[in-house]
Amino acid sequence: MLSLYTFILLIFGLAVVLDAKSSSGNSVLVILDPARRPDYSIFFDGLQEKGYDLTFRAPKDETPVLIQDDIPSFAHVVFFESDTKHFAKDITPQTLVELLSGKTNLLIALSQKQNLLTSFAPEFSLILPPPGSSLLSYFPERKENNSVVPIEVPSSSNIISAGTAPVWFSGVPFVLGNNPLIFPILNAPAESFAADAEGITPDALADAAEKGGEGLWAGSQLAVAAGFQTLGNARVAWLGGVELFSNEFAKKEISKGVKSGNQQAAADIAAWTFQESLVLRIDSTTHHLVNTSVPKEHYTINDVVEYIAQISRFNPNKGKWEPYSGINDLQLEFTMLDPHIRTALPPVPGSPGKYAVTLRVPDRHGVFKFVINHKRKGWTYLQSSTTVPVVPPRHDGYPRFLSAAWPYYAGAISTSLGFFVFSALYLAGDARETNLRKAKGAKAQ
Amino acid sequence: MSTAYPLPTNLSKTTVANTASLLRIVALGLISAAAIASRLFAVINFESIIHEFDPWFNYRATRVLAAKGFYEFWNWFDPTAWYPLGRVVGGTVYPGLMATSGVIYNFLHAFNLPVDIRNICVLLAPGFSALTAWATYMFTKEMKDESAGLLAAAFIGIVPGYISRSVAGSYDNEAIAIFLLMFTFYCWIKALKTGSALFGTLAAVFYFYMVAAWGGYAFITNMIPVHALALMLMGRFSSRLYVAYCSWYAIGTLSSMQVPFVGFQPVRTSEHMGALGVFGLLQIVAFAQLARSHLSSKQFQNLLTVAVIVMGVVGTFGFIALTYMGWIAPWTGRFYSLWDTGYAKKYIPIIASVSEHQPTAWPSFFMDLQFLIFLFPAGVVLCFRELRDEHVFVIIYAVVASYFAGVMVRLMLTLTPVVCVASAVAFSSLMDTYLDPTQPEAEGESRPAEVDASAASNGSTASTASKKEKEKAKKPAAGGALSDIVAATSSSKKSKGVWGLDTRLVVIAHSLLMLGFFVFHCTWVTSSAYSSPSVVLASTNADGSQHIIDDFREAYYWLRQNTAEDAVVMSWWDYGYQIAGMADRPTLVDNNTWNNTHIATVGKAMSSSEEVAYPILRKHDVDYVLVIFGGLLGYSGDDINKFLWMVRIAQGVWPDEIQEPNYFTPQGEYRVDDRASSAMRNSLMYKMSYYRFAELFGGGQAVDRVRQQTMPKTGPTLDYLDEAFTSENWIVRIYQVRKEDDLGRDLKSANAFAQGKKRKRTKPVSKRRAITV
Amino acid sequence: MAAPSSSSSSSPVLSLWKAYHQNTSDRLKFIDSFLIFLMISGIIQFVYCVLVTNFPFNAFLAGFSSTVGQFVLTASLRSQVNPENKGVFKDVSPERAFSDFVLGSIVLHFFVFNFLG
């Protein structure tokens, strides 16, 4: 028998749970000295409003542990304490990678200091600039320091919502290597460059000029915010500086009367990292012969088979998975060592979330796989593989009597008939001969 | 007539005949019992288990047949063999063996005798060996007489050359094939002798059974035509030959094409063209005979000459043209390598790498046949003396089989029956001469020519059974049956012969001693050399007790119980059938060796470095890799010893990437210690075999007992595989293939990172390409 | 079996034909007519295979070997029944020959019809 008070508390708790925005959990560990929390209050309060459970941990604290008994303790980790050199024993690059294998998402901010992040970032093929450098830009003309750089938000970004005002940035840029899993969210402006506080050295400039601009840490090849999605669909957002999320930049005006877009951009980047936006999943896949509905254990060559996939997308506003028919370049491969068939898997109009295609099994027996391998930057990777053996026709699956073979049938049948007639006549002749002989014998007597 | 020893005179002919046949039946029964009993060593010493490699596949197929019925077996597509290509078992197997077991299984179950299919499979070979003994008896009876037949049956019952392929547990095609071989030959000889189409049809039906059972049926396909051709060339064409050969060929060839694995080969390949040619030739000669009876000799000569010339020319050109155009396939590699023995090593390394395909060493002739091997030429010479049609057959068979047995160890099996037959003829002739009690008279008296008593040799044959008491009991009885001798009047006086008892006794005693040695030798060879199920090894401890090494089954059952049901296992093809049979997991390659490229892919993966092998492993969805390593125990049949064959086979398909000389030291030695070449040390096979091997020796020198070399102190490291299981004596080692890194790195760097090493600083990647002039 | 086209051998062929006609019994001629029927049937099938198509090769083989097999069995019967050959076939009486013939033909036809479709 529950009291009214507990009952209301329960409902409230349920409401909180129902209001969860992330598709993979809402417990967040923030590695930041709690004393510095007020500097980022706009960002953190925004998170809490959405329903996230924030836990703060100073870098030297032993608890709460990142991984307990081989299970990650939190669904998301925010790493803002990038200026510190020494961390607790369980915060190492190796444990952070383990977190990713455990499907924990990371939001990491870099800094000029050399700490564990400097050895961690290259694993994601991020190439960091020489130590001590930060992003500098003399343009546009502004009253701030040349290390505080305004950056336009690209209109084609699918992470930061359209129409966001330019953001203020201060920190370290980096260059993306050639790992296909990483993609830029925000690139540095074309006129910016990376150098330490004194500015770029003339030697480095001359060197780079000789090489035609190679090796110069400058231009829009530098990225200040990048996203990385592991093959297990855990997301990591790399930021060049933690100031991007600070209250100060959020409140600073980008131009007369226009507030900077930092608050919006910060919320959007966090939303992407915490598996709210651009999250897809394959609900189910099935295959069957056309005009039937039950999947077969194995198919025969040249069968016509229909393959159906059901895909949904997470709606962060409602906190639910909804069928999604917006992927128009989904591909299906029918593979045995190499794809024998590669065809488009279009959405079926009229059935939300359903993608179907009809294909003819190749003329080759073996163990085939239906493979969906859809990777787009920013979106969850859709990977599915269904194994199905393809057998040759049964011995009575071939057409039996062919019209082209009629002379042979006629020949064989005529031989058998001839044999019967022959033996009958032969025996009759035999009987007649013995009768004759008997008659002769009788006569002779 | 005077006799060396007295004979009873008051026995009627029918009594003697009845007693003789009773003795024969008893002797045949004892021979069957001896044959079956001497094959049971493995079952008694170890257990009722299927041996070796190939029988495991036959056993799996038979299980499918017994469980699901014949049509499911006929259409069986095995998706777990040769992953992911699969194997169409129904069309690539000789179904005779499985069908036989299935019939016996259903027959016993119809009587509600719930015999497990495994026991049927294990005991099928001994059962059929008893039938082989009977078939050899019938065959030799046609050659000489019943006594020679009994001797031949006894010989083939226990001779090691046949036992090696038909012990209990060796569930392979040869188990029933030799019986079918001898019985088909018996039917053929009987057909030839009587000229009856019934025996010709019977020969064809059993030939069909043989085609369904063993790939060696091509031997019969060529022996019978060669025999017919030899008879025609000797001028012994007769209507009987025509009847026998044509009924055999017509029905036999048609029925042999019913087996899907054979298909249209009998009219398309060179191995079968001999039979077709002789068939055509027989028609021509028969028609010529017919025409001769109606024409005068001179006209016939003209007609015959012209006709034969035209036919010969047309026929030869026809064959050459068809072969050239490819309509008739040339000799396949397997058979071609019998003529050109160097062919396989150069072009088909898979065939050359099988140990059974190596040339026979001299000692193995003695080990397999003992004193039969020197009685054998004597028997062939005796056949020359008689030279009836059937003796020509034995002579041809003897010559051909001797050649083949010299080329390939495996074909000792086809030599064994004819050796038994010929030596039985020789031995029996010897016994006839010395058991015959008639002595030549002094001049002037008439002496009947004697016909030997069949029962006389009965006594000696019965003694070859393993009981010594029976020997003593039979001997006195032998004398009684001797009065089978008919007092036939002779036309010629016998002036040569053997006088007195003493010579007779010496020779007979010596022969019996030889037979005794033969029995002793056969039993010893069987028990020590041919009765080990190679799945289980045995050795002796320091105190003499037996120590069973069961590593194989331990590892296969680990796989069976600890891995996912569709986990794919990669190993060298030797172990494919065993893995499929005992561990029940999909394999990449197995003993069927039908796809050389797939085997070469496995060979390439084994002999390349980890980075090169890993994409191959991932492409084929390999989850586990299995290697056999004998270095700890001294087991010399391990994969490092077979490694060069893997390299050669891979080199055959990828000569640019794999070169055999890279795996030898610069001096040309095959080393695995610190002097091993870098290709060797980095190869996947080497790493998997010696991973953590040095740790076993606790800091001391690690010694590989098979290669007799000391291993370096630091062993190899593995980045792309994890050790999953190593058996008790380190014979079987199983490794799990790691999945791709989550972060998309290559596993080597991922491992280095996990151990705490830092990456080198890299410069930004240039997005611009240099202009090349 | 074609007679060669040499002018000097036309007379052997004619005399062969005359001798054959005179010397063979009616029963043997009856068997020979069956043989010729089988031969014609076989030649038709072979010509069809070579000229038109050999596609259902198994059907061709079945039909052709049915004629060839029946031909040799009948020829064997002929030689066994021929009273001139009595000395050659000691164990096979004409009745036994006929029963062998029937048995062989039945086995042959069984395989033929199995292979045909």
Automatic annotation (TrEMBL), chain A:
- Please give the start and end residues of each transmembrane region: 406-428
Tell me the membrane topology, using the record's own terms. Answer: Single-pass type I membrane protein
Give a GO cellular-component term: oligosaccharyltransferase complex
This protein's source sits in the domain of life called Eukaryota
Describe the location of the OST48 middle domain by residue ranges. Answer: 287-428
Signal sequence, renumbered to the chain: 1-20
Q: Chloroplast: is it a keyword of this entry?
A: no
Pathway given for this chain reads:
Protein modification; protein glycosylation
Record domain OST48 N-terminal: where: 28-273
Subunit text:
Component of the oligosaccharyltransferase (OST) complex.
Q: What biological function has been recorded for the protein in this entry?
A: Subunit of the oligosaccharyl transferase (OST) complex that catalyzes the initial transfer of a defined glycan (Glc(3)Man(9)GlcNAc(2) in eukaryotes) from the lipid carrier dolichol-pyrophosphate to an asparagine residue within an Asn-X-Ser/Thr consensus motif in nascent polypeptide chains, the first step in protein N-glycosylation. N-glycosylation occurs cotranslationally and the complex associates with the Sec61 complex at the channel-forming translocon complex that mediates protein translocation across the endoplasmic reticulum (ER).
Q: What is this protein called?
A: Dolichyl-diphosphooligosaccharide--protein glycosyltransferase subunit WBP1
Whose protein is this, by species? Tetrapyrgos nigripes
The top of its lineage is: Eukaryota, Fungi, Dikarya, Basidiomycota, Agaricomycotina
TrEMBL record, chain B:
Supply the alphabetized keyword list: Endoplasmic reticulum, Glycoprotein, Glycosyltransferase, Magnesium, Manganese, Membrane, Metal-binding, Transferase, Transmembrane, Transmembrane helix
| Catalytic reaction list | a di-trans,poly-cis-dolichyl diphosphooligosaccharide + L-asparaginyl-[protein] = N(4)-(oligosaccharide-(1->4)-N-acetyl-beta-D-glucosaminyl-(1->4)-N-acetyl-beta-D-glucosaminyl)-L-asparaginyl-[protein] + a di-trans,poly-cis-dolichyl diphosphate + H(+)
* Ranges that cross the membrane: 21-44, 88-108, 120-140, 146-163, 175-191, 197-220, 241-261, 273-291, 303-329, 365-384, 391-409
**What Gene3D superfamilies does the entry give?**
3.40.50.12610
InterPro entries in the cross-refs: Oligo_trans_STT3, STT3-PglB_core, STT3_N
Name where it's found.
Answer: Endoplasmic reticulum membrane
Q: How does it sit in the membrane?
A: Multi-pass membrane protein
Q: What is its EC number?
A: 2.4.99.18
Pathway the protein contributes to = Protein modification; protein glycosylation
Say if the entry is tagged with keyword Nucleotide-binding. Answer: no
In alphabetical order, the GO MF annotations are: dolichyl-diphosphooligosaccharide-protein glycotransferase activity; metal ion binding
Which GO BP terms apply? post-translational protein modification; protein N-linked glycosylation via asparagine
Region span, Disordered: 438-476, 754-773
Q: What ranges does the record list as Low complexity composition bias?
A: 453-465
List, as start-end ranges, the regions of compositional bias called Basic residues: 756-773
Oligosaccharyl transferase STT3 N-terminal domain ranges (all copies): 23-422
List the residue ranges forming a coiled coil, or say none. none
Gene Ontology cellular-component terms for this entry are: oligosaccharyltransferase complex
Q: Where is the STT3/PglB/AglB core domain?
A: 566-618
The cofactor required is:
Mn(2+); Mg(2+)
The protein's superkingdom reads Eukaryota
Q: Which family does it belong to?
A: Belongs to the STT3 family.
Q: Which PANTHER family match?
A: DOLICHYL-DIPHOSPHOOLIGOSACCHARIDE--PROTEIN GLYCOSYLTRANSFERASE SUBUNIT, DOLICHYL-DIPHOSPHOOLIGOSACCHARIDE--PROTEIN GLYCOSYLTRANSFERASE SUBUNIT STT3B
Describe the task this protein carries out: Catalytic subunit of the oligosaccharyl transferase (OST) complex that catalyzes the initial transfer of a defined glycan (Glc(3)Man(9)GlcNAc(2) in eukaryotes) from the lipid carrier dolichol-pyrophosphate to an asparagine residue within an Asn-X-Ser/Thr consensus motif in nascent polypeptide chains, the first step in protein N-glycosylation. N-glycosylation occurs cotranslationally and the complex associates with the Sec61 complex at the channel-forming translocon complex that mediates protein translocation across the endoplasmic reticulum (ER).
From TrEMBL, chain C:
List the taxonomic lineage.
Eukaryota, Fungi, Dikarya, Basidiomycota, Agaricomycotina
Task: Write out the annotated subcellular location.
Answer: Endoplasmic reticulum membrane
| Cited InterPro entries | DAD/Ost2 (IPR003038)
Entry keywords, A to Z: Endoplasmic reticulum, Membrane, Transmembrane, Transmembrane helix
Transmembrane stretches, by residue range?
34-53, 59-77, 97-116
Family as reported in the entry's similarity comment: Belongs to the DAD/OST2 family.
- Enumerate the Gene Ontology biological process terms: protein N-linked glycosylation
Q: Write down what this protein is called.
A: Dolichyl-diphosphooligosaccharide--protein glycosyltransferase subunit OST2
